[in-house]
Amino acid sequence: MIIKMKKGATESNIDKVVTRIEDYGFTPDLSQGKGTMVIGVIGETHTVSEQKFKELAGVESVLRITRPYKLVSREYSSEDRIIEFGGVKIGGKNRPVVIAGPCSVENEEQIVRIAKEVKKAGADMLRGGAYKPRSSPYSFQGLGRPGLDYMALARKESGLPIVTEATGIHYHKIDNTPEEKDVLDNVLDYTDILQIGTRNMKSYGFLQTVAERTAKSGLPVLLKRGEEATIKEFLLSAEYIAGNGNPNVILCLRGIRTFEETRWQRYTSDIAAISVLKQESNLPVLFDPSHATGDRELVRQISLAAISAGADGLLVEAHYDPENAASDGPECVTSNVIADIVEDVKLFHQHFSGRFNR
Amino acid sequence: MIIKMKKGATESNIDKVVTRIEDYGFTPDLSQGKGTMVIGVIGETHTVSEQKFKELAGVESVLRITRPYKLVSREYSSEDRIIEFGGVKIGGKNRPVVIAGPCSVENEEQIVRIAKEVKKAGADMLRGGAYKPRSSPYSFQGLGRPGLDYMALARKESGLPIVTEATGIHYHKIDNTPEEKDVLDNVLDYTDILQIGTRNMKSYGFLQTVAERTAKSGLPVLLKRGEEATIKEFLLSAEYIAGNGNPNVILCLRGIRTFEETRWQRYTSDIAAISVLKQESNLPVLFDPSHATGDRELVRQISLAAISAGADGLLVEAHYDPENAASDGPECVTSNVIADIVEDVKLFHQHFSGRFNR
Amino acid sequence: MIIKMKKGATESNIDKVVTRIEDYGFTPDLSQGKGTMVIGVIGETHTVSEQKFKELAGVESVLRITRPYKLVSREYSSEDRIIEFGGVKIGGKNRPVVIAGPCSVENEEQIVRIAKEVKKAGADMLRGGAYKPRSSPYSFQGLGRPGLDYMALARKESGLPIVTEATGIHYHKIDNTPEEKDVLDNVLDYTDILQIGTRNMKSYGFLQTVAERTAKSGLPVLLKRGEEATIKEFLLSAEYIAGNGNPNVILCLRGIRTFEETRWQRYTSDIAAISVLKQESNLPVLFDPSHATGDRELVRQISLAAISAGADGLLVEAHYDPENAASDGPECVTSNVIADIVEDVKLFHQHFSGRFNR
Amino acid sequence: MIIKMKKGATESNIDKVVTRIEDYGFTPDLSQGKGTMVIGVIGETHTVSEQKFKELAGVESVLRITRPYKLVSREYSSEDRIIEFGGVKIGGKNRPVVIAGPCSVENEEQIVRIAKEVKKAGADMLRGGAYKPRSSPYSFQGLGRPGLDYMALARKESGLPIVTEATGIHYHKIDNTPEEKDVLDNVLDYTDILQIGTRNMKSYGFLQTVAERTAKSGLPVLLKRGEEATIKEFLLSAEYIAGNGNPNVILCLRGIRTFEETRWQRYTSDIAAISVLKQESNLPVLFDPSHATGDRELVRQISLAAISAGADGLLVEAHYDPENAASDGPECVTSNVIADIVEDVKLFHQHFSGRFNR
């Protein structure tokens, strides 16, 4: 439910609305628009009549949100949410960003070298995993906190902000000894954007914990779509974070699981879902062409397709030696491909950004 | 199997190779390259050793095709197949084409008006169905041959070549009376490109009949991917036409069926499959954003995404009055959107065609 | 729309109802229930008010069918349709049938031997393909009419009725010479049940032709579900046959295409769809465990699961030498497995048929 | 890798093998078979030659496991793993179990009443959720620890052991106050079987934590298949638990996400996957017909289909007042349906258990 106050509404008017919202057990969400105050009501408001708010002094109108997700819907707030930090802006009319880096942080030299290379190629941020969700318990699970240290060094050396994944709130082990902090706290000590992976998109308890621990800082959270999550489920997971205190959510698509042969494509690139999400939600939407295609020969072209469909940026796996990457080598590109992609994105933005006015 | 002859190979050398091919029950396919003759061997050649051809005079090399499809594969012929007719060129480095028109031909006025409108908007061809495959026996099944007459008139009035679908080799009825010719023969009397729909992609007997009836004319055949057909199955269906005498096949994607909610998208747009097909096959690839998305709000943006992924053209549903179209109104756009799409395609081709050298 | 006449309704009353139905361009479908006449109205009746029929003399009630399919729905006729021929009964409370035989008829000896073996094992019918829909144009396409001759001989030798597939209304070729009749007519010269395959489920022109050519004989038509057809599409395809004159349709499930690994299962066995179809339609429902699983190790157990879900019978691939079958060997079982399956089915029917009263 | 010792192998022989296993960084898994010791080697053993173990004294043979999962595969141990506790046995040749109860624990009266009813109906265990993973942050998230207290009371009153889900290792809140223990520890204080839900099947950090906290007790863990998880991914997730110290894993299928219309079935019942899992793994396999179908009209029949496919038991939602259940009412059955299901299962076991000798 959204309550629009009249232009001349007093603070006392607003206070009374807020009090009533809280009386019903809901949470108020105030935002000052141009000259008018708009108050969101978060909670299961269908049990309460609009009249209960319309009757208060200073209230101009009461609008019900028909979507199951609220804060992240365009219906609730039609303005694009723009995520801004360290000179990078994601979303809105800004030039789409290119985030590049390896699947896994392997060692200091590797990540620093890649960071410098992708920086030179024009990338806006560095990606790299210190904690890796692997389908087999016998596969390399990431370097852990030392990997984060290398990421921090790579950030310093390259000047690029970093994004890295927290795989949960369990304790990662190195040589069978659990690290001092849980995985999420470790990652929060370092990262500029917190990534939540595909496999955790429906770990609702984890999402809630993420929201609580980042509510104060407002650290941007990049949430990947589950392999088979519907658009509705994806936006509800984003709502778990936004509705629990951190509105700075970035959506990221990475291919969905369908009947298509994995011989050709690891997943089916859900390109049209970019456009659907941009219509339905106010959040920025990125696309990960590396996991989606699983094939470095396709990465550049699908990157451009994603941007054409309205993506606010790309998350691309890059390595100087894809053949010998610790994980996901077949979908990794070298930094000269990153340079091509950056060039494509700029060229596209220059010629097409004015043509589509979402 | 592909047999490359030496540069100085004589006609007699070639004749002997051809004879041996036929002795094994295979079909030879001769094509004169730059200075050298290349002979394709069509059939299940895995039963025969390369040696049987290598030993003949004038043979330089023998290459096995590892794909189950032969003629339509890049492995067999790496050069882009370009379909050319009435001034239109589809495939290769040509500017992607825009084919527009209504789902169904409704009457003379409708199709002539739309033809003129989309011509003015810059479209290259007119689409429209006189025979409609409908999932319900109680739905409008198309006007039949009179619809083709209206299409022909629209072609004359607009100057646009036409593409229309043959739904089979059965006899369409008008007022319970079967038409004089079967559907395919009716369509062949009129069309510039013959369309085979999604639902018939695996009607192998029909595909074979199409190939036989068009082998002599080489009339281009636009084959749509089945809703759940794999890339392999799709290319094998194309091979049914190419291998039975008509190599002028145009592939057309139109969305696949997945778990995604039909509320948002009628089908999942298989954009990355465009890139895969362009790598794997030498045939031109079109995309139909109207059936894929089922939503006119998405058509323009997904059109551009398809072009970015390498599509050689678009097949778009257009109508001056989408709300009242006889079928598929929700996915129909008006001609001013067609004009935008044509403009997008030209702009894209101008700035990007040189950047990707497939 | 269904019109129930009053108990004492006269012939003249009925005639007037029929006339009005025809005046609207609809088709009447009369069936004499216990003491009362029920008249189905086939066509797009939503344009006409019930009142137009209620007002006629002798009419008791008018009921609208809410489903898009009419004749095949339980809503239209709640009684199970039972298909009966040559001593075999399919549907209703009858013991589920077991139809067994090879994928392809290979030669006289093969099919006669298999027929005798499966007869001995207790099978109720013989299956075998003379015309084969193959995804590759270079694969064996079936023996054609000679294959039908062998099937007829096998029927004679074993006493089992036969079911075989018509792949279309094109002309099959033997040594490049088209057969005298089209495929459908050839098959109609021989078969006891006409099979329409998965790949043709949406070839609506073909379905219509099948209905017309079998309307008079009422020859049972076994219609297989498309690999990705929805329940609604499947029943609408059945309606194409029933609504065009032949109500004797048997539905057959054979697995659907999903994300599941083909390493384990060729298709996903759509077992619950059996129960859904039995609730939603009055037609008998068979299951084909061979194509569904693609794995002979699974065939027997999945057969029993299908029967447990309410299937009226099974269509099982059988061969005395599965390793060397001309097609689909990996999913073929030997006749001793058929004997086990027949035994399972009988045992199940004996102990469970009374427990579920659909 | 599996190392079989010779019959007369000494303890010293075994010790040396164990030492070498540990030297390579692998983990030994000893199990005493009939007269012979079998030593599993857990880890990425493909880097080490069999010869390194064959050469040790007392070793009879060394067998490589070709599957990516080890402990849970039939290849590793062909014997059925039987889970036994409180008089209940799950797996092997035992009569399949029926576990019944509500989706959510709503209050003391509700769960005690249902427990007594399903006990009377013949159920073997009680299910019920105190922590609920909900796709919307605004939906009821479960009663938390008080709900577990009610479950414990219901266990005492009915005599049925209980199974309930832990949704993570976060802190559940009641009136905005986090509970004292994390969710997993709360559940471990009470339950007889620990359930891990569909949405957490790929939360690898959580799976590992579960394994560690239950390694000593060996508390059975019921792991549900992810909505789109492949068989391989599912078994690898089971391996995360077994390979980290708790081999007592029970697999549970609950329908997969496909293109099928949710109007008819909430998910596609993956019945054949039961048979595949029983072939591929030594773990018991249950089926949840309630979540799979989402329709109480289908639950009983699909239950029987699952048992026919080889399931070792069922997990069925039951409530005395399905219409007013706090969650998932449409798929809930009443206890008289549970009684029918129990009767079906017993009858099936009586007549068919001897016929299939897996």
Mind explaining what this structure looks like?
The structure is a homotetramer of 358-residue chains. Chain A is built from 11 helices and 16 strands. Chain A has helices spanning 11-23, 51-54, 108-120, 145-158, 183-188, 204-214, 231-242, 271-280, 289-293, 296-308, 335-352; strands at 2-5, 27-32, 37-42, 59-63, 83-85, 88-90, 97-101, 125-127, 162-165, 173-174, 177-178, 193-196, 221-224, 249-253, 285-287, 313-317. In chain A, a hairpin with a 4-residue loop joins strand 2 (27-32) and strand 3 (37-42). Chains in contact: A-B, A-C, A-D, B-C, B-D, C-D. Chain A binds chain B through residues 228, 230-232, 256, 258-261, 264-265, 268-273, 275-276, 279-280, 292-293, 297-298, 300-302, 304-310, 340, 343-344, 347-348, 351-352, 355-356, and chain B through 228, 230-232, 256, 258-261, 264-265, 268-273, 275-276, 279-280, 292-293, 297-298, 300-302, 304-310, 340, 343-344, 347-348, 351-352, 355-356.
